[in-house]
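Q: Given only this backbone (134 positions), what sequence would you predict?
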């Protein structure tokens, strides 16, 4: 899979990228939402691995904008500020999986491999986003 990892903590981003590459996936990195949007406009991704709270925007702002570029890409979110309300808000935006930091390498590997076997996203938020962009 071609995966865009969006994480503002460079140390954590390095760790995530190293693991994901080691599992034979292509990795592109972004440290801000703005950079993620630029990369999403220029390249196709199968999966976005997003930190929820970035320096320039939150995943709640970023996800609808990413969907305009790539409505069928799967989205997995990572957060150090775990709450049920946050998870529900992100799920309404059509994420495929919600993960609370710290995330173990084995858990992340399991989720990414599962995402690689799923059919194209069909969550209502994804379909609505795709219909609005036509």
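A: Predicted residues:
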């Amino acid at each position: 899979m071609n995966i865009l990892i969006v994480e503002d903590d460079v140390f954590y981003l390095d760790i995530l990228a190293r693991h994901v590459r080691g599992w034979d996936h292509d990795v592109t990195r972004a440290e801000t939402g703005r950079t993620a949007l630029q990369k999403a406009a220029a390249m196709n991704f199968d999966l976005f691995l997003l930190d929820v709270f970035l320096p320039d925007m939150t995943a709640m702002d970023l996800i609808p904008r990413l969907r305009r570029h790539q409505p069928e890409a799967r989205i997995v979110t990572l957060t150090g500020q775990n709450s049920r309300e946050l998870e529900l808000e992100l799920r309404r935006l059509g994420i495929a999986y919600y993960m609370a930091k710290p995330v173990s390498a084995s858990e992340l590997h399991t989720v990414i491999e599962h995402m690689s076997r799923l059919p194209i996203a069909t969550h209502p938020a994804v379909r609505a986003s795709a219909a609005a962009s036509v």
